[in-house]
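Study this fold:
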Amino acid sequence: MSRITLDIDLNRVEGDLEFQLDLEDGIVTDARCIGTLYRGFEQLLIGRAPRDALVITPRVCGICGTAHLYAATRALEQLAGIVPPAHAVHVRNLCLLAETLQSDLRQTFLFFTPDFCDATYAGHPLAGELRQAFAPLKGDVVRSCLQATRDLIGIVAVFGGQWPHSTYMLPGGISQPANARRLLDTQDILARTREWFENTVLGGPLADWLAIDSGAALQRWQEASAARQRSALGLFNRFARAIGLQHLGRGSSQLLSYGVNPLPGDAGSQWPAGVFNGDSGQIEALDQQQINEHVRHSWFLDYPGGRHPWQGETIPEHLPGGDRYTWAKAPRYGERVMQTGPLAQLRIAGDPLIADLLAAEGDNTWLRQFARLRRAGQLIALAGETLTALRAVVDTPHFIDPGIDVWPDGESYGLIEAARGALGHWLRVRDGVIDKYQIVTPTAWNASPRDSSGRHGHWEQSVIGLRLANPDHPLEIGHIVRSHDPCLVCTVHFLGSSRKLHIDV
């Protein structure tokens, strides 16, 4: 029996990520997802004025700063009992939709599909089409995606003045209102995005894509025209399923979403929050009190079991050796290992196509990436609806001054769906300043290490049992991990690691 340990250093992910695998005869028997950076943002915020979170937390990440700003704003509004006006809520949602859309599209065509051009697949019948479409920085789809998403993120600049690291959301509203020019600019950007998505990604009308309600209907839709077969989505589906990505990367069947597009007046979300129980097939109401974080296998000062973020600590303790191996914590929902992201969002929202595919094949690498493109189409439609709703309230206030000189003591939280899934900020204020601040990111959920009971995180589960065709070039690991759109920048923040073997995949 042959035993080997591989350290894989993944590129084309947001941040620095290592995967350490134990192999026996080419089969992964154990896995350790290693976040090589320590995040100290929670410590930076302690002792500061609560509003400082609106400037500091958007800088946690250069990709999802709008989501962090939104979560921080919601936490402050909950703390003080502030209800933002509808005008502000719709602007916030438009900006978050734009950020999520650009992330979905860039991740798919700049991070995920370049692996399809790897030399491993040079002999495949689709190799020529794949290079023409997806070659890094040269493919037709890649180049047009760069232009489309550059325009799309302009929506955040229209309302927020800049992207990334915008700070236009405030407790009580936003810093500047929508007006005729901003509405027209946003409408133009969304129209061009939709046109590009229909022509390049779908090869047909968006309405037809959104009407698909089952796996069988998906196959009929794709085979109905040559344009759909040649589209970016058609090429992705044909090749990904031909190489068996629908059979790779099954992890936790428990799914988590905080809900998409919060409604004005704290009336829930357009896409509901919830937990999908993969064992029962039922959707459960979300209870944030069940969220807890473990540090047993992380480089932090240890505490027993899991702690809710209001009681949790983030005190670094990097001890060499032993069985700690990452700067990421291990979030759990009760005792359950969760998966979050587009697949979770759509299943909990009741998307019939995703529900059918998940029931038929379980969570897998192809389905997670496919769900990202399914969500992109849904979000384009949702952005149009949000723009219409904004027009209806454009003459109403965009900001209601809460008149707060000293923030009240207490605990609060802000939950939002970022591009990669469930993002939460937990806040405690004492004597008018921040006494505790904890951030639980989507990648922390997906890329968590083992917890106090030894349960592997979702990514680790998704690779254990996998047979590697070539351990010196484990392309399968790249497919599986990138299907989650990793963001280690959000999850950890301090460089430092040792590598036994560098494999660029």
Summary: The chain has a mean pLDDT of 92. The two ends are 26 Å apart (CA to CA). Residues 365-392 form the longest helix (28 residues). The domain at 3-491 is CATH 1.10.645.10 (Cytochrome-c3 Hydrogenase; chain B).
